[in-house]
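Apologies for my clumsy wording, but are you able to produce some protein sequence, whichever is easiest, and the tokens describing how it folds?
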Amino acid sequence: MSVWKQAWKVIVWIVGGLALVSMCLTLTATVRAQSDTIVRCDPAAKDATVGETFTLDIYVENVADLYAADVRLRFDSGLLEVVDASANEDGVQVMPLDVFLAPDYIVQNFIAPDAQGSAIAYAATQLRTDHPDAVNGSGPLVRITFRPLEEDIAVLTFTYQKLARPDGTQIPASTQSCVVNIGPAAPPTAVGLSRLTARAVPFAGWGEWLRALWAAVSLRP
């Protein structure tokens, strides 16, 4: 074999090896990007007060080609109560958001009893007639308004999630739990206490009231 043929063979092997390495790197990057997709709460940690409502969003982070979503979020119904977002419908619903995935068709939106409390079940998809293109990036799916019932630490966990592309194939994703630190109800304000104290003072009688009035206008009895 001539020197030129040997050199050409080496070049072919080098080019082929580089192409294979590039393909592997691309595949690894794609798999890594998909595995980095997260379904979580926003915010992930929240301070709350007994009796005072607050909101949490179910949030999808770092996703590509998202067209439909189905999630279930478990919470302790002895610590948290979901405030109904739609009084005109039966049951208790949460509020769909359209700033990321458009909820053209809502498959389910309700609160269901769960073995360890209750679970928020929400599923929605876009429709080709209204939104033919999938969404990419990060954004909220739904907003939940909670009312804390007792002082404690509430941990909310995702028991199920499925993100889908326009062709129906599932997008790999992980989930992250969120924590709500519920503090005691705020004590009455100083103004409130002073009013209560003032109301608790017994009426001294008309004589005392008249003397106070005369003193106020610089008169004497």
